[in-house]
Write a structure and sequence with these properties.
The protein is about 80% helix and about 0% strand. It is mostly helical and about 375 residues long. Helix 7 packs parallel to helix 11.
Amino acid sequence: MLRLSSDSPFALAMVTMAFALPLTVLSLFGGALADRIPRKQVIIVCFAGNACLTFLLATLDITGLIRFWHLIVIGMINGSFMAFSMPSRQAMIADIVPKESLMNAIALMNSAMNITRTVGPALAGVLIIYVDTSGVFYLNCGVYLFSIICFAMIRLDEDVSPRSRKRMTEDIREGLSYARRDSTLRGLIIMLFVPSLFGFPYQTLLPAWAREALDVGSDDLGYLMMMMGVGALTGSLFLASLKNVKRRGALLLAMSLIWGISIALFSKTSSYGLALPSIFVIGAMNAVFMSLDMTLLQVYSSAEMRGRIMSLGLMTFGLMPLSAIPFGIIAEGIGTDNSLMISGILLAILTLAFVRWNPKFLEIN
């Protein structure tokens, strides 16, 4: 995109939004689909679609036919496939893993995601030098095909995704009503939306903050980004190692509170030596929080509703890049450090407000 648009950051943001919007808009339909047909089948079909689109993108790139609008359209369709597959991928964990090991399994899956998020971009950056961007896209297509083989090898004792005879919109309304009536599920979903709006903008604004506050170059920025990924990986692995955790609701809210405070303190850091451990803590807190919330959503939802409940939580993944827009505007006006401080303070305040509004949430196991 940078090559096609003469290094336009706005064009880059457009591609990100093209991928993120379907995650927010279509996740509910993906959740309903996960509760209507076998989840493994949904995942394989969606991954096959991702593989075909990535192959097309690589071919357009290598032939020199790639255009701006190609990336937008392919990004939207790929995001749509992701919106349909992610609820099934999350809900399928509970179909495979015993309930008492569910938290550990979800944390392990998030650990794998954090490893790829840390290593993947760096590996792609090196490979582009030797095989160009088209070669990386062809390799990405191969990874999708390998994933399809892995999912095809999974064996389930029974079809845990009962077929519904209702219209999909009725299934969605039923899922929304189910989440609204259950105070635990309602609280868990609210506590996913709050950090998505106020806890994740730091990821987008980190490069601008690093330049303004620390005057660092791309190499030091890379170390900051890597430390954030290492923190997320450490947090996920720590949660995966725990057994018989009690009062998980209290732990969840504590992670959210520390996350907000850490962002506020990090925003005013003027030393690179202090910034590295600070971003590590932030990465660890958000990884533990997300893994724990997604675990509790699965634990407290019934099997026939699990796909739709997970889709409500996964809508927040599409909101994450979009939430950076208002804080980017604030940063333009009063500085990136102040914008980050506001986001952290709001996250901490809203977490405390949630505790006051719903104190029984602290007793959730």
